[in-house]
């Protein structure tokens, strides 16, 4: 039934090498000269190797740590500016045949309310997300070839893209977070015009991986770990990686995730477009006391800063698993994309009652989207609902080239302002609208290219006067 092809060793995640790297970094983490040499290298904004990045992560020299955080902020500012991209998850089914011990969707969890949305319900969920102001979603499912086959996922993608509200198109970009699958299925996803294919490794430590995934198709470490290879072979050129911090030693997973990225870049010339840094959270029938590797806030924030330095051109995503306070610090250190107004239940956006007890995990930041926009604007970030790059095919290698030459700034800030304008006009509260309009005025003046500035002003006017929407560079 399940196409599990590979039991072969995953040679790009080398357990011995990771342990040697951790050993070396532990011994040298406070070698002032070495840390400063790595920082000098990092200032070139060309990234670091997994081993250099781990040294920075483990370093506990006070002065050097200050430099690490300062550099992370500097890189964030230089490459991403003040833009923060927003999205929300859309759970369509929580049927699952896997045994993931940290997840309430696990087959054995009898009190989880199992739900699979009908296409009508998916349409209603899409409309609710649109009415909040969202344009980009992450489609989420459990793994179950019978209750949630690929055909259902594909049909759901069509439904979401085709959903209109008062004649207007709604969601413009669907990122897809479904279980590891075959090249053939990845090709089908590609044909549906998905945005990013997202798959968290959970943990790269094989022993722990097998402990936390005792049965089901996901229990095959090799098959899961080689999923991105299959996705890229199938032609998907926009991928997102991540680990679930709390399952294994964070040093191990931090190093291995960078090794994974190095492998993908070497073989396919495409690294992850984004990485996620989820931490394990309370959930139905899940006892967090059973997880020995849960990380504290200080370690978590250092991880964010070190990823920012190690992979400067890879976006960092932080979800509503984290509190407002942690998100605020992390935004400054390197996060470029956040979710907002999120529910992790199946169908909860349009029918809370029916969705009871179907959540994947508890969120910590429960603020509605408008409150999140208001908060971002007050912090002088530019909330962005932009989906232009993927629709203009600025993805994969092409995107990397553009972003490495910093050209992305020419598109991203104006596009962020145009989508913010749409949000303010259609969905914002009065207060958010006011702060947002002021920010747009300020930001327009900062656009250096006169032609782009002129066109941005023209497009903003067209949006304001209701002539056009969905305009982008
Ligand atoms: N079922 C697919 C898979 O196996 O990859 C899709 C992913 S699932 C819908 C989304 C992610 O939620 C998982 O990859 C996992 O990392 C995360 N997750 C599961 N349980 C969690 C928990 N208790 N706390 C935080 N995140 C959790």
Detail the topology: elements first, then pairings:
Layout: H1 15-28, H2 32-42, H3 50-58, H4 62-80, E1 83-93, H5 119-132, E2 136-141, H6 150-162, E3 164-165, E4 168-169, E5 173-177, H7 183-191, E6 197-198, H8 206-212, H9 221-225, H10 227-233, E7 239-242, H11 250-268, E8 274-276, H12 297-310, E9 315-318, H13 324-333, E10 337-339, H14 369-378, E11 382-384, H15 388-391, H16 396-404, H17 408-426, H18 430-444, H19 450-464
Parallel strand pairs: 1-2, 1-10, 1-11, 2-5, 6-7, 7-8, 8-9, 9-10
Antiparallel strand pairs: 3-4
The protein binds S-adenosylmethionine.
Keywords:
nine-stranded parallel sheet, alpha/beta, 473 residues, single chain, 10% strand, binds S-adenosylmethionine, disordered N terminus, TIM Barrel, two-stranded antiparallel sheet
